[in-house]
Specification:
Strand content: under 5%
Shape: elongated
Largest sheet: 2 strands, parallel
Number of strands: 6
C-alpha cells in the first residue's frame, strides 16, 4: 500500500457520519479505487469494512447499485475465489499443520466477506418504498456466488482438511453461521422486491439467474442441513411461481424436477430402511428407528409437495424430466405393497407413507398426461417385452392411472396370483378388496365408459390391436372391456360388431382361420345378441360351408337362447363336418388344403361332441356313428410320428386325439391300440407341450373304457401304463400337474386296476404324491419352488394356455374361465431342480441345434409359421442381444 493510500485511509477512518456524508462523492470513489489497486487480502477487506460502516449508510438505496455494488461486486467475488484457492493450495502442502494459522486467517477473511455482503443486503432494506428488481443487478449475483462457494467449501471440508478438521471446527462453524445469516437476509430482501410495471429483458434474466442460483445452492446444502434445503426450496418455488409469466420459458424447471425426483428416490429407499423388519405374518424381527422415520418422512413429504407444485405450475414448460418422473413413479409403486418386491410394512407406517408421498403421484400423472414424451416413455412400442419383471406391476399401476392407452406390456407376475388390492376411488365409502385383474378391468371400463361417442372408433381400434396381442393379459383385458362396451350398448351395435368380427376372420389367410382370439370374442358377443339377431346370424352363416362360418357356429352353440335354434345348428354343422371328414379320408395323400380342412372338421366336431355332457342337446346318433367309423379308418391309415413335422399336421394330430377321447366308448380294440401306439411314439419323440397335454386329456377319459378280451389287451395296458409313467415323470410342471389329475381320475373309474400299481411301483414317492394330490395338500420337499418362483419362471402365456391355437385341449368355454387350474404350491420333482441347474454350455448347445432346425424348417416349402411365432422369435432375439450387451 502506498503512503498516499495509507494516509487517505487513516484520515477517513476518523470521520464521523456527517463528515462522510459531506465527502461521499469524492471519498467513496477513492476508496473503491484503493480496493481495486491493492492485492493483499487483509488490506482489501479493511477497505470493504470502511465502506460498509462509514460510507454505505450515507448512500441512498436507489443509488447503491450505481455508486457501490456495480463497481465492487466483481472484485469482491474475485477476492472470495482467490481466498478459497489460497486455502486449497495450503492444504496440499506436505507439512499441513504448519499452514494451520494461515488457513485460519483465510477462513476469517471469508467470514469478513460474508459480513460485508450481509451489510449491503440489509442496507437495501432500509428504505420506506418497495424496491424494484431494476434497482439491483450486481448484489444478487455476488450474494449467490458467495453462498454457492461458502456452502460448497463447508460441504467438502472433511475431505479437504482431513486431520486438520478438528483444529478448524470453530472457524468453519463461524463461516457456516455467517453464510446462513447472509442467506436469511438475502431471502428477506428478495421478498421485498417487485417487478416493474414495464418489465425489461434484463430483469427477466436477473430473476431467472437468482432462481437458478438458489437452486444451485439448494443442491449443495441438501447433504449439509435439511432446514436450509427446506428454506431455499420455499424461496425458489415462491419466486418462480410469482414470476412465472416472465421467467417460465427461461427457468429450465426440468432440471429442478430431475433433482427432486432423484432426492425423493434416494430418500425413499433410506426411509424404508428405518422401518421395523417384519416377517410374512407381521411379527417384528428387528426394531426400526421411529424418530428417524418420522423426520425423513416429513422431509420427503415436503420435497414431494415442491415437486408437485413445480410440475403443476409449469406443466406446459417441462422438458428432459419425463424419464426421471417415470422412474420415481416406478420406484414408489415397486417398493410399496401390494407389489411383491415390497418389504412387509406395518399398516400405520404404510398409511403415513401414502398420505405424505404416494397420494401425490396422481397429481404428477395428471400433470404429465399432455406431455407426449412422458406418454411415449410409458407406452412406447419398444417397451413391449423390455420391461423388467419387478417393474411390470408398478408400470401397470401407472398405466391404470393414465388410461390414455390400453396396456401394451408383458403381464406382471402379480396378475397370476390371488393378489388383492384396495381402491377407494372405485368402491366409494366402503373399501372393497379386489384382485389386481378386476381392478384393471374396472378402471379401464370406467375410463372408456366416460368417452364421447366420437372417440369410440379409436377405442375399438386399440381394443382390436390388443385382442390380437401375443400377451395373455392384454388379450383377456381387451376382450372383457370389449364385452363391457357391447353389453351396455344397443342391440344393433352388438349385431354390427359380431358381423364385423366374422367378416374379419373370413378375410384372414387360410392358415390362420379362424384366429383364436377373435373367435373367443365373437362367441362371447353372440351370447349378447338379441334372439332375432341370433336367428339372422345362424341363417347367414349356415347358408355356406366356409371354414369360419362352421367354426363360429360350432363354438357358440351354448350361447343361443332358443333350444330349437341350438339343435338346428348342431345338426347342420355335424352333418357338414361328417361329410367333409369322409371326403378327406378317401384322399391318398394330404395337401396343405386338405390339412386345413381336416383341422376345421376336427375342431368343429370337438366343439360339438365336447358339449354332450353340458347341454341336453347332442349330435344325432347316426352322425356320431358315421364320425366314429371315419375316425377309425383315419387312425388305421396314418403313422402318428409322421405328423409331428409341421405345426399344421401337429394340429391335426392333436385334434384327432382329442376327438377320439370323446368317442372312446365306441372305438374298437384295434383302433384303441393304434391310438395308444401313436401316442407312445409322440411321447418318445418329445412332442410339444400342447400335444402332450392333449394326450393327458385322452388318458383322463380312458378310465371308463373296458377293453374286450383279445391278444392285444396286455400290450395295450402296458402302453397305457408307460404313457402314464411318462406323464408323471415329465419335467414340465403343467404336464406333471395335469398328469396327476388324469391318473387319479383314471384310478377311480377304471376296471383295469392292474394299470395303477404298474405305474407307481417303479416310481419312488409317486404314490405319496398321488395321495396328497387327492387330499389337496401340497407336497413339501427340500428345494421346493414357491408359487411366486413358479410364476416367475413360467411365461405368462403358459399360465393361461390357449389349447385351441396349437393342437391342444380346447376348454370349450366361450370366454376366460372363472376357475383357473389349481397350481402346485410345491413340486416333488427332482427333474425340475435339475432342469433349472442346466449349465450355460448345455443351453447354448441346445440353442445351436434348435437354430439349425429352425433354419431348415423356414426354408421348406410347407412352412406354416403363425404371426405369433414370428413375434416370439423377435422377442427372443431382443432378449439375447440384451444379455450380450449386459455381459459385454
Amino acid at each position: 500500500m502506498s503512503q498516499s493510500q495509507s494516509g487517505f485511509l487513516e484520515t477517513v477512518v476518523g470521520w464521523d457520519s456527517t463528515k462522510c456524508q459531506e465527502n461521499l462523492d469524492t471519498a467513496l470513489p477513492r476508496l473503491i479505487e484503493c480496493f481495486q489497486e491493492l492485492d493483499v487480502i487483509q488490506e482489501q477487506i479493511g477497505i470493504l469494512k470502511i465502506i460498509c460502516h462509514s460510507f454505505l449508510p450515507c448512500v441512498q438505496v436507489t443509488d447503491a447499485e450505481e455508486k457501490v455494488f456495480s463497481r465492487l461486486m466483481d472484485q469482491v467475488c474475485g477476492l472470495f475465489d482467490l481466498t478459497l484457492e489460497d486455502i486449497q493450495l495450503h492444504t496440499q502442502k506436505g507439512d499441513r499443520k504448519s499452514s494451520l494459522p494461515l488457513i485460519t486467517d483465510r477462513l476469517q477473511s471469508l467470514v469478513d466477506l460474508s459480513e460485508f455482503l450481509e451489510t449491503c443486503v440489509c442496507h437495501m432494506q432500509t428504505g420506506n418504498m418497495p424496491l424494484e428488481w431494476s434497482c439491483l443487478h450486481s448484489l444478487p449475483r455476488g450474494t449467490i456466488h458467495f453462498l454457492r462457494g461458502a456452502y460448497g467449501h463447508c460441504k467438502v471440508s472433511g475431505e479437504l482438511y482431513q486431520e486438520l478438521l478438528s483444529c478448524l471446527s470453530v472457524p468453519l462453524s463461524n463461516l457456516f453461521k455467517k453464510t446462513h445469516s447472509l442467506q436469511v437476509a438475502f431471502l428477506r430482501l428478495l421478498d421485498n422486491l417487485r417487478v416493474s410495471d414495464q418489465v425489461t429483458e434484463q430483469e427477466v434474466q436477473e430473476i431467472t439467474q437468482v432462481c437458478r442460483g438458489l437452486f444451485d445452492v439448494c443442491q449443495i446444502v441438501t447433504s449439509l442441513d435439511m432446514k436450509l434445503m427446506v428454506t431455499l426450496w420455499k424461496a425458489i418455488s415462491k419466486h418462480a411461481v410469482s414470476n412465472k409469466a416472465h421467467i417460465g420459458h427461461h427457468l429450465e424447471v426440468g432440471d429442478m424436477v430431475n433433482h427432486l425426483c432423484g432426492e425423493i428416490q434416494t430418500g425413499f429407499v433410506y426411509l424404508l430402511q428405518l422401518l421395523p423388519r417384519l416377517d410374512l405374518e407381521g411379527r417384528v424381527l428387528s426394531q426400526g428407528d421411529e424418530k428417524g422415520f418420522q423426520k425423513s418422512l416429513k422431509i420427503l413429504g415436503f420435497q414431494m409437495k415442491i415437486l408437485v407444485m413445480l410440475v403443476r405450475e409449469f406443466s406446459d414448460l417441462l422438458d428432459r424430466c419425463e424419464k426421471q418422473v417415470y422412474n420415481l413413479l416406478l420406484t414408489l409403486h415397486r417398493l410399496l405393497p401390494p407389489s411383491l418386491s415390497a418389504q412387509q410394512i406395518d399398516q400405520k407406517n404404510l398409511s403415513e407413507i401414502q398420505q405424505h408421498l404416494t397420494n401425490a403421484t396422481d397429481v404428477l400423472i395428471k400433470a404429465f398426461l399432455p406431455n407426449k414424451l412422458f406418454i411415449e416413455t410409458l407406452t412406447g412400442s419398444e417397451k413391449v417385452g423390455a420391461v423388467r419383471d419387478e417393474d411390470s406391476f408398478p408400470e401397470l399401476q401407472i398405466l391404470l392411472r393414465v388410461l390414455d392407452n390400453l396396456p401394451q406390456m408383458e403381464g406382471s407376475v402379480e396378475m397370476g396370483l390371488p393378489l388383492y388390492i384396495t381402491d377407494p376411488s372405485l368402491t366409494g365409502k366402503h373399501e372393497k378388496s379386489m384382485t389386481l385383474y378386476e381392478n384393471c378391468c374396472t378402471r379401464v371400463c370406467g375410463f372408456l365408459g366416460s368417452l364421447t361417442t366420437k372417440l369410440f372408433n379409436k377405442a375399438e381400434e386399440v381394443l382390436l390391436e390388443n385382442i390380437l396381442s401375443h400377451d395373455l393379459w392384454c388379450r383377456l383385458l381387451a376382450e372383457d372391456v370389449w364385452c363391457f362396451l357391447v353389453r351396455y350398448g344397443s342391440a344393433d351395435l352388438c349385431r354390427d360388431q359380431v358381423n364385423f368380427l366374422v367378416e374379419l376372420m373370413k378375410q384372414s389367410p387360410p392358415a390362420f382361420q379362424p384366429p383364436s382370439p377373435l373367435l373367443s370374442l365373437t362367441v362371447r358377443l353372440i351370447k349378447c345378441l338379441a334372439p332375432e339377431h341370433q336367428a339372422e346370424l345362424t341363417q347367414s352363416l349356415g347358408a355356406s360351408d366356409d371354414p369360419v362360418s362352421l367354426r363360429v357356429l360350432a363354438s357358440c352353440v351354448q350361447g343361443f337362447s332358443d333350444p330349437g335354434l341350438c339343435q338346428g345348428v348342431i345338426h347342420s354343422v355335424s352333418e357338414i363336418c361328417s361329410w367333409l371328414l369322409r371326403e378327406i379320408t378317401t384322399t391318398e395323400e394330404y395337401t396343405q388344403e386338405d390339412l386345413h380342412r381336416l383341422v376345421l372338421c376336427l375342431s368343429c366336431l370337438c366343439e360339438l361332441l365336447g358339449q354332450n355332457d353340458t347341454i341336453p342337446l347332442a349330435v344325432q346318433p347316426h352322425v356320431t356313428s358315421s364320425i366314429t367309423d371315419t375316425i377309425g379308418r383315419l387312425w388305421k391309415g396314418i403313422v402318428a410320428s409322421d405328423w409331428l413335422n409341421t405345426s399344421l399336421s401337429l394340429q391335426c394330430l392333436g385334434k384327432l386325439i382329442l376327438l377320439s377321447s370323446y368317442l372312446l366308448l365306441s372305438l374298437d380294440n384295434d383302433v384303441l391300440d393304434k391310438i395308444l401306439t401313436g401316442m407312445s411314439s409322440c411321447v418318445q419323440q418329445e412332442s410339444s407341450v400342447h400335444l402332450h397335454l392333449t394326450l393327458v386329456y385322452f388318458l383322463r377319459s380312458f378310465g371308463k373304457v373296458r377293453l374286450t378280451a383279445s391278444p392285444e389287451q396286455p400290450q395295450m395296458l402296458k402302453r397305457l401304463s408307460d404313457l402314464f409313467v411318462a406323464t408323471l415323470t415329465s419335467s414340465d410342471l403343467f404336464i406333471y400337474h395335469h398328469g396327476l389329475s388324469a391318473f387319479t381320475k383314471f384310478a377311480e373309474e377304471t376296471l383295469h386296476e392292474a394299470v395303477v400299481p404298474s405305474c407307481i411301483e417303479d416310481q419312488p414317492g409317486l404314490q405319496d404324491c398321488v395321495v396328497q394330490f387327492i387330499n389337496k395338500s401340497p407336497y413339501t420337499c427340500s428345494g421346493e419352488l414357491s408359487r411366486l418362483d413358479f410364476l416367475r419362471i413360467v411365461p405368462p402365456c403358459r399360465i393361461g394356455v390357449d389349447m385351441d391355437s396349437d393342437s391342444g385341449v380346447s376348454d370349450h368355454q366361450s370366454g376366460p374361465s372363472s376357475k383357473r387350474p389349481r397350481l402346485m404350491e410345491n413340486v416333488n420333482h427332482c427333474q425340475v431342480s435339475q432342469q433349472l441347474k442346466t449349465s450355460v454350455e448345455e443351453l447354448v448347445g441346445v440353442l445351436r441345434k434348435t437354430l439349425s432346425d429352425l433354419e431348415a424348417f423356414t426354408k421348406s416349402e410347407d412352412t406354416d409359421m403363425t404371426p405369433q411365432t414370428w413375434n416370439n422369435l423377435e422377442h427372443i432375439q431382443t432378449k439375447i442381444m440384451d444379455i450380450m450387451k449386459e455381459k459385454g
